[in-house]
User: Fold this.
Amino acid sequence: MAAAALSAAGQRVLLVDKGDFAHFTSQESSSLVWGGIKYLQTYEFLLVFKLCLARNRLMRAYPNQIRQIGFLASLGENAPFGRVLGTFGTLFYWAIGLFGTKAPASYSAKVAKQLEPNLITGRKAVKYYDAELPDNDSRFVFDFIRHAQRLGADVRNYTELVGADFDCSWELELQTAGKTSRVRASSVVNATGPYAKQVSQLLDAPTDAGLVFSKGIHLVLNRNITSDYRVLALWDEQERLFYVLPMGDRSMIGTTDTRVDSPETEVTQEDRDFVLRQLNNQLELAEPISADQIVAERCGVRPLVVEGGGSGDVADWHQLSRKHMVEANKSRRVVTILGGKLTDCLNVGEEIVAELKEFGHDVSKPTDWFGEGSQARREEFYDLVFSKAGSHAEEIASGLWRRHGERAFEILSDQPQDLFNGLGITQEEIRYIVANEKVVTRDDLLRRRLPVAMARSEKEIAQNETLQQLLVELGL
Assistant:
């Protein structure tokens, strides 16, 4: 988002990423755009207010890529409150967000069971609203990449910063596919997530704040286990929230919260067993969910900010929130972003612009650097798809428009067919993405530009002959 905001503010921008865009922590989230209702329990009302306003702003700017969704919270024995306090909390959450979502609701045990048959009998429930990304987090990040490109930025994936020298301005050494090049820059923005401290050391621009890493995992199942398009909010045996979330036409469950020392993590058998145990304990399912029903996994770290110190001992690290900090080193012209979450991305982008203005850059107020743009031709496009496509016209129309906006008219063919029943992805869209979105590997395409690898198993992907032939044809 910093690249898009700075480009819109009149700056000449180079964006580099060691791997693919959004290939690491940014691709492992719950794909939620939320105001942080759980932070009400720790009385961080200002943070919740700011996040809710940021959520509302994103929902207005991305009416297709961000979808409002209900969270049905089952109030079992592990929940920290009952129906009365839960009802008050959801109403307060709605109000602190300036009524930017649908109104919350409260349900008796009988009505809750009717709404969601998989809930445990006898448990009351409350419902509140936040938002989610129907595709995935990486796709959303790429929208900012696309905006930055449109505004003149040079964006390069698979390009690593390997050296840096400063003498009034920067000379940066970059490595791409084994080849080294050098570029000059007046300032550097360090937006490297959990690697922010390491990069700040490389730049010899240390930060005051530190980072603590919390590992979270999600498991994607081979079916949808909710009765409607909603999120189920449950409390695990550690009295922490975990969710059953939509992932395309399937369900994703998680997340965990485990202190780790390194950003490099993986899903362990202990993680799988824990998440499956929580799900089976907190729902009444006809048959328990087992490991053989897992089609994909997500695993990443939350970089949590520790003010005024390194990343050492923290007395109660579970209480650390997802707030962000921006630190500016004016003497070396480096701005470092620490912590934060997807919901707050627009605020972060604008803060970066303000910091570079303090450095003496001639920046203007950034405009038109995010959002989906005009929706004037949306209904025209939907009508066109329904006149051409068969039984999956709705999925194809919504998917193409959501991911490409008016560019979808260029992609639509005379006889569009869904490559994966239920995902709304066509051969023509894959060709377009490979040609226009800096795709280098299959993972770039199937895991990040599109949600295929998160909603379908490796076996299902391998058995899709049409897709496999297309990938070979495209050199992937």
